[in-house]
Amino acid sequence: MSTTTPTSATAAGTDGGPVRESAAHAFEVRASDTARSDAERAALMEAPVFGTVFTDHMARVTWTADGGWRDHRVEKHAPLQLNPAAAVLHYGQEVFEGLKAYQHADGSVWTFRPWANAARMAASARRLALPELPEADFLGSIEALVRTDAAWVPSGAETSLYLRPFMFASETFLGVRPAREVEYVVIASPVGPYFSSGVKPVAIWVVQDYHRAGPGGTGFAKCGGNYAASLLPQQEAYAHGCEQVCFLDAVTNTELEELGGMNVFVVGADGSVSTPPLNGSILEGVTRSSVLTLLGEAGREVHERPIPLAEVRAGLEDGSVAEVFACGTAAVVTPIGRLASGDFDLTVGDGETGAVTAWVRDQLTGIQYGRAEDRHGWMHRLI
Ligand code: COI
Description:
By secondary structure, this protein is α+β, with helices and mostly antiparallel strands. The protein folds into two domains: 24-196 and 373-381, Aminotransferase class 4, branched-chain amino acid transferase, N-terminal domain (D-amino Acid Aminotransferase, Chain A, domain 1); 202-352, D-amino Acid Aminotransferase, subunit A, domain 2 (D-amino Acid Aminotransferase, Chain A, domain 2). 23% of the residues lie in helices and 27% in strands. The strands form two sheets. Strands 1, 2, 3, 4, 5, 6, 7, 8 and 18 form a nine-stranded mixed sheet that branches. Strands 9, 10, 11, 12, 13, 14, 15, 16 and 17 form a nine-stranded mixed sheet that branches. Strand 13, helix 7 and strand 14 (302-304) form a beta-alpha-beta unit. The longest helix has 14 residues, at 114-127. It binds 2-OXO-4-methylpentanoic acid. 2-OXO-4-methylpentanoic acid is lined by residues 98, 261, 328-330. 2-OXO-4-methylpentanoic acid binds next to loops.
């Protein structure tokens, strides 16, 4: 069993170093001619369901094999024009990211560890044979878009502007090879909690007959195909009254890997905290890395280790597992109150939010919303 006390500079990216270069100045702003009025925007932002409301603009950069990255712009959020033979529609050559802009009490707007997202997007792009977007362009696209659509950053509790950078093969070509034309786009969406139930314990269906990723596959990359592969088991989860699926490893089918769209943590009754190790098929979550850092600094034993499902089942039955939680940019830190599958149905603790889950959520959101000191240099000011 490995015990780790991660520092803030884990593999998910390094923070707090010298101020990073941003290419925000390179983005030409072409204002939308259909921007919503103040009243329309206020109505849309009242209680947005996650991922349903979008701001007036999007950031965009185009890449060609001959010309590299060019035409940095912020333009109207509008449908993309694609030839039906565009490679992404056939072979799924696509990667994406997720990060948020948070409004602080003084009206300033910040984002969280965007360098880690830039690095992860570059790693995902390499795996999908897409071009790597320079970090300065990634940061610049976020800054330029959020500054243009500043009025869309919500200020209520637990709200933020969710940013979705993505990159896809736009070349019109049906041959199977890396595309020679690629688009990078960032869209933005004001959001509240990811789950429709709000910030409450969710039920998880442990799927034992499908896998999300295997050795040498694309599990560590944030590519659309990983999420597409989770949708059928996700339907199974819904049918059993669960909000998300938890996948097991593809080699032994015995160890927890990750949920359909977030990482998973298990808290022992002895106070120790475990999460599956980054074995190549698990997404290297920025929230996962931050949670490990915060818990380790608080003096907790934190382990990145294989977690057998049998151990969790036995632990929930005999009380040695006290809490289970999920984490991710969208989900933040979400308590898990029930773990079920074809052959078991177990309540986690008393089914309510556990103390460690609540503590780490509070610490993390404290930093993100500017209520707590940013000791690690994780926050990056946008406005
Ligand atoms: C995120 O947490 O940002 C993600 O991309 C996960 C997705 C399921 C919303």
